[in-house]
Amino acid sequence: MKALQSQINPHFLYNTLDTILWLAEFGENDKVVAVSKALGEMLRVSLNINQTMVPLALELAHTENYLKIQQQRYIDKISYQISGEAKLLTAVVPKLILQPLIENAVYHGVKEKKDFSVIRIRIHRHGGKLLINIMDNGVGIEAEALKQLRQQLQTPESFPSDSVGLLNVSKRIALLYGDSWSMKIYSKKGKGTLLKIEILLDKERETI
């Protein structure tokens, strides 16, 4: 779990440092401070490998810091919305499950689209389960690639330990929740992608 959790995309780190550099060169001091602060907060969370579960509020804050950085990299190209029930913010979830999925949406969906794009995260509850929907209006996924992804999600335990993105997240959730979870992906080429995650809302599970 810690090996999977500790993975951080070095390309994102390099690109963020480049963003800070060119913002500084153009004298955008306020933006340099904002991006540097967001990156610092992300690293503080990511590098704490002793923490497996965190409050949903922290997970969302980490994800929003990522999105703020990407907004500076892709100016006038990306917007985002986060919505849900405020009382769910204290729910405990596996750490670093949202940001890698948003990163997928940015690099494989939004980045490739010429027009303005929106990424939406919606959190809600259904019975004793926490539902997380991640939706983008990016370029979507080819039918054959989508079929392969769906097949892979059926057996997350078979993924190699160096899996990244969607596969990494699904393997970590499977390790923690056994059969009490699901991840479903829907997409149409040229229309966008919807990812639905469902995990057990366990009141007894502690932040560790």
Distance between the termini: 13 Å
Please describe the biggest sheet, giving its number of strands, its sense, and whether it closes into a barrel.
5 strands, mixed
DSSP summary: helix tally: 7
Q: Name the overall outline.
A: globular
Secondary structure: number of strands: 7
Helix content: 40-55%
> Would you list the SSEs in sequence order as H and E?
HHHEHEEHEEHHEE
Uncertain ranges: none
Using only CA atoms, what is the Rg?
Answer: 17 Å
Structural class: alpha+beta
Strand order of the largest sheet: 2-4-5-7-6
| Overall mean pLDDT | 87
Strand content: 15-25%
Short overview:
This protein is α+β, with helices and mostly antiparallel strands.
Topology:
Blueprint: H1 2-5, H2 10-25, H3 29-46, E1 53-55, H4 56-73, E2 78-84, E3 92-94, H5 99-110, E4 117-126, E5 129-136, H6 143-152, H7 165-177, E6 181-188, E7 192-200
Parallel strand pairs: 2-4
Antiparallel strand pairs: 1-3, 4-5, 5-7, 6-7
Describe the structure.
- By secondary structure, the chain is of the alpha+beta class.
- It is 44% helix and 23% strand.
- It contains seven helices and seven strands.
- The chain has a five-stranded mixed sheet. Strands 1-3 form a two-stranded antiparallel ribbon.
- Helix 2 packs antiparallel against helix 3, helix 3 (29-46) runs antiparallel to helix 4 (56-73) and helix 4 packs parallel to helix 5 (99-110).
- The radius of gyration is 17 Å and the shape is globular.
- The model has no long low-confidence stretch (mean pLDDT 87).
